[in-house]
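Case study.
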Amino acid sequence: MSEKQKINILWFTKDLRIRDNESLHRIMQDDLPFLAVYIFDDDFFKSQQLGFRKIGKFRAKFLLESVLDLEKSLDQKKIPFLKKRGKTQAVFKQISNYFEIEKIVCQREWTQEEINIENEIKEVLPNAKWSKSYSQLLLKPDFVKQKLEKVPLLFTTFRQKIEKKLSIRKEFDTQNLKYTKSFFDLKLMSDNMTLGSLGFVDFEVNQSSAFPFSGGETQGLQRLKCYFFETRNLSVYKDVRNGLLGKDYSSKFSSWFANGSLSAVSVYHEIKNYEAEFGSNDSTYWMFFELLWRDFFKYTSKQHHNKLFHQNGILETDYDFKSDQNAINRWVNGETDSDFINANMLELKNTGWMSNRGRQNVASYFCKILQQEWRVGAAYFEEMLIDYDVHSNYGNWMYLAGVGNDPRSRTFNAEKQAEQYDADQKFRNLWLK
Ligand code: FAD
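After joint prediction, the assembly is written out as follows.
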């Protein structure tokens, strides 16, 4: 039998982009040819938690669009790409039947399910080397370590220390890279993926959605250009970011960030470009401020590991709750005693999207008024949100349940919030009609 050809693998997970992709940049520096791979892992598409799917139809559609867009971009660069549905371990095993896998280059993850998958790959490829990068972060871990011995409990402390002599890395230059490695015969076919093959019925995007966008780097960069440079919405962001209606009260970047089709570092540099062209103000600063929140939850989860998923959270405070399936169902279906909560929950159910203001209110209502277990609410969000991100979702839920980064454990008053943010009832009328 002839010797197998040695290759590296560029394993795409939640970094579905070309621009500022550190893994792509790294693998291009190597002499070996490489194969890019994306796997729709059965563990995520088939399994359930606390009665909810791990991925619902909205994120599945967005993810599929993102991978197809990536496939096009890789094709333009003549980078061989394999997209598969199945168990990640099995796909790596299959590839290793044809090639000797020298190295796997990918984004570094630290949450349990992602680590489990990596460990399963290591079982079938014990000799493969690994090269991982923190490409989902805005702040480099070395920089954060220099500033902070430990990640503090409070965001303000984190922000103030980070902002002193702030340093953000440059983008990795991947735009002009050309794949010129020796051609190899793939012998493996990509799966033809549709929403149906992922276990969902195809659907039309709801006409009233505040997030009518498609997945993929091309769309993400288009949104960035539009929100910043074409409409200059960035200059008024701070004044309108608590809105509930329409595309433009906030950037809507989160969904592209979540699967990595947009890089937080790229957005940071575009804020700076924007400020150079149109001037800085509180709003341009506030977009950076929100990006810091995103990193804060990532660094918090990195420090506390699985406490992120414990009932008593990172504060390790006793958490009393009732367990009432009817109350949970009413919350999910927008049938609670509060019309403001109901409108937000119906928006989520029908679109996979909810504003930050809405999320704070419905989560607080779930934990404090209905007194249900926060992890059930978080699991429902995990299924439904297009922009689901493990760190932001569980971090924000812990925060609102009073077991996370806010020891004050406040409760939102939904009536007052409705008066303040939906005085003309337009939002409620949209979803409760
Ligand atoms: P913008 O207002 O335009 O902000 C720009 C970016 O800053 C966002 O894209 C996001 O990356 C970051 N950001 C803003 N607010 C927060 C925040 N509170 N926490 C972390 N990052 C923030 N965000 C997710 O990306 N995924 C989630 O799964 C998620 N779950 C949440 C659950 C709850 C209960 C709550 C209260 C918030 C959650 N958030 C989550 C945070 C926030 O609601 C969304 O990031 C934001 O609404 C996304 O809209 P945008 O991109 O238009 O935000």
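Observations recorded in class. The two ends are 69 Å apart (CA to CA). Strands lie at 5-12, 34-41, 48-49, 52-53, 81-86, 99-107, 129-133. We will return to this complex in the next lecture.
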